[in-house]
Amino acid sequence: MNRQLDRVYHGLGWCAAALACAAAALLWCMSLRYTASFDPASFEERLTLYPVGMRRTLPCCLLLLAMLTAADGLLRRRRSLMWPCTAAVAVLGAAYVLSLHGQPIDDQARVWEMAVALSSGDFSAIDPDYFVAYPYQVNMAQLLEPLARLFGHDPYPAFGLMNAVCAGSCVPPLCRIAARLGGRGAENLCGLLCVGFLPLWLTAAFLYGTLAATACALWAVWAAMSLCDGGSRRLWLLVALLFPASLLYSGSLIFAVAVALLLLLDALRGRPLRAVAALVLLVVCMKSNQVGQMVFCWRTGMDFGPGIPKSAWVYMGLTATDTNSAAGGFNSYPKLVFWGNQGNAQATAVAVREDLRTWWQGFVSAPQASWHFFREKICTEWLDPWFTSLTSTYTAEAAPGAFASLFCGGALLDPSSSMLRYLLRTVYAAAAAGTLCAARRYRGAVWALLPTICFLGSFLFQIVWENHSRYCMPYFLCLLPVAAAALGKAAEKTFP
What we know:
Elements: H1 3-33, E1 34-38, E2 47-51, H2 54-75, H3 82-100, H4 107-120, H5 128-133, H6 137-151, H7 158-169, H8 171-182, H9 184-196, H10 198-202, H11 210-228, H12 235-248, H13 253-266, H14 273-286, H15 288-300, H16 310-319, H17 333-340, H18 345-365, H19 371-382, H20 402-407, H21 413-441, H22 450-464, H23 469-477, H24 479-494
Helix pairs in contact: 1-21, 1-22, 2-9, 2-21, 2-24, 3-7, 3-8, 3-9, 4-6, 7-11, 8-9, 8-11, 8-24, 9-24, 11-12, 11-13, 12-13, 12-14, 12-15, 13-14, 13-22, 16-18, 17-18, 21-24, 22-23
């Protein structure tokens, strides 16, 4: 391998490690000062930022780090817990879904109604205005259509059980990544962290493709790491996993971009065909939404057009204050500016561009005025202990069963919230250290940093995009194996 290209490859790896470590460390410092919480009385998605006392949180966080390090030392001597933890996550998710008795609301309800219309062949039941504005939702509706055909007009519990399986499917790739970075103890600790991270299996009740896409994307991350570390050479597997991930949930494109960058940089190591594979992967994933929409238009004879320009969500994410979540959340700006321009995507893009230019001029003249806005936005995105897994699936009018009611305002809500807050603090601290450990151990090899690169991409993207902590959850999962590996290394030095 050319020495100069080698320096470029490993230098870029170290740069990515430094940025990802800084992002995780920033979140850890913020978590010692703030926490985000919803109102348990109303169970609305609106999050409020609260200060916390560092004198109590810091010692407790350090104590939990020490306890997990000791646990890792014990777990090294046990058989693999990957499959038991996988089963536990799937079973807990299924139990929650069956106990919740939920119904789709808001966008979930619109998508499900269209799936029912597709299954019945009555396309007149489809709301054209909604899908003219949000054409990407047709992909999810087509995924749900088989369930509507098999189980009628009630999407639960069939889709919830499928989601529970998908939640369990997230565990093996995370454990395998942890094992590759930190050995058997890290693998077992990562599995236990997945079980303890309640939003992973509580999201099973959310009627959307988030978990299915996340499972595919995490398997692709593990496959890409194995590929670039001299393992499997099945490049087609990356496309086979990331194409459906991008189709089911557009937020998974960050995974696709990260894997494509890894392949592109791996081409510097004397594997030029991987640059071609990176471009193919990017094109396939970027066009996935259009493929689904073409199939839908062919079936129904409807043509929705490009929909609301993505720049409208960027402007909203940079300016919105009175929202349904927190700073930068949804405030109907994209919908209002789109219909204000008679549903014309090009005219909307021009109007949004002017708004963005006005915002930028104000930001450049007084950047300090935006400090409180972005502090609140970042904190409510990454410090929500539930990642809206409860408020997006449960309403105060519902009547959950015994198990679900423990979390939906019951006896386990407050203690679980406290546990998750300390889990977040611990993971951010350990992941920051684990990123530097991986960079040092593998001399800045980019493949070893892929999970944290995915996290870094999401962290940067969410600064400008619509504020919703659920969007961050798949990328928080990427930190679990990195944190487990860091604790494993600490355990090796402490308990040799």
